[in-house]
Amino acid sequence: MTDVFVALGANLSNPKKQILRAIDALQHLPDSKLIACSPQYSSAPMGPQDQPDYVNAVAQLQTTLSPHQLLDELQRIELEQGRVRKDERWGPRTLDLDLLLYGQQVIQDERLTVPHYGMTQRAFVLIPLYDIAPALILPDGRQLAELVAACDSSTLFRLPD
Ligand code: ROI
Predict the structure, then answer these.
(1) Which of 16, 43, 60, 159 is close enough to 124 for a disulfide, judged by CB 3.0 to 4.6 Å?
(2) What CATH number did the domain enclosing 29 receive?
(3) How many angstroms separate the alpha carbon of residue 26 from the centre of ligand 1?
């Protein structure tokens, strides 16, 4: 069993509901167990500003799926929830599921970059991750708590449970 963390993001078609539905789908993944789920946060869009605010959260799973099997499952859930790949970089989406961490493994290939490349600077990832794994240390030895202390969380707001 490997501990993995998945970031959830949505900003279209009732984003709060999209996140809850995605958590339910994570709960039903094969050979996996949902361990924890952060509160939901509202966050200003990173990237183009002419799009709605996002709802973000982070989930922890234990799995025996390989990283690529897990990626396949995450992409299946995105598609089932109406994700349409558009040409616009960083455009709005009904659901984004990013594999943040797969144990302490570092993975770099044409489909996967783990740890997720943007995670160390994005408050909408770091803060919900910190909610469920405050003692986490990244594969490069950095402590999550230090990254949280250094990030700008001024446009992140915790939503009521
Ligand atoms: N901005 C926020 N606040 N939250 C996200 O989940 C998110 N996801 C993205 C881009 C478009 C980069 N911006 C985001 O993919």
Answers:
(1) 43
(2) 3.30.70.560
(3) 20
